[in-house]
C-alpha cells in the first residue's frame, strides 16, 4: 500500500516538471539567427511567463496537494478555449487545434487529478493509522 502512495506522490510532480519543460520549449522561438542576442533575451524571458506561473503552481502543489491539484485542474480546463481558439485562427483546422489542446492542456488536467488522488490516498492512510 505504501508503494502505491509513493507512486501517487511522485508521478504528478514528475509529469508537472515534464509539462513545464515542454511549455518552456515554445519560448525558444523568440531566438532568430539574424537577431541581436541583447534584444532576444528579454523576449525569451517574456515568453517564459507561463512557465514561471506553472513553476509557482508546482511549488504550491508540492506541499498543498489538494489546492495545487484543483489549481492545475482549473488551469488545464480554463485555458482550453483560449488555446483552441488561438490555434483555430492560426491554422483554420479544428482537428489541429484539438490536437494542440490535447498536447498542451490535457497533461496539466491529468496532473491536477493525480495531485487530488495523492491527497486523498494519503488522507485515507492517515485516517486508518489514527484508528489503529
Write the layout of secondary structure elements.
Blueprint lengths: L1 H24 L11 H11 L1 H15 L1 H14 L1 H12 L2 H11 L1 H26 L1
How would you describe this protein?
- This protein is mainly α and about 130 residues long.
- It has helices spanning about 1-25, 35-45, 50-65, 65-80, 80-90, 95-105, 105-130.
- Helix 1 runs antiparallel to helix 3, helix 3 (about 50-65) runs antiparallel to helix 4 and helix 5 (about 80-90) runs antiparallel to helix 6 (about 95-105).
- The radius of gyration is 18 Å and the shape is elongated.
- The model has no long low-confidence stretch (mean pLDDT about 90).
Short account of what is shown:
By secondary structure, the protein is mainly α.
Q: What is the N-to-C succession of helices and strands?
A: HHHHHHH
Query: What is the arithmetic mean of pLDDT?
Result: 90
Counting DSSP H or I runs of 4 or more residues, the number of helices is 7
Secondary-structure class:
mainly alpha
Helicity range = over 70%
Strand content: under 5%
- Major sheet attributes: none
Low-confidence stretches: none
Beta strands, count: 0
- Report the radius of gyration as a whole number of Å: 18 Å
First and last CA, distance:
16 Å
Structural shape: elongated
Which terms would index this structure?
132 residues, 7 helices, elongated
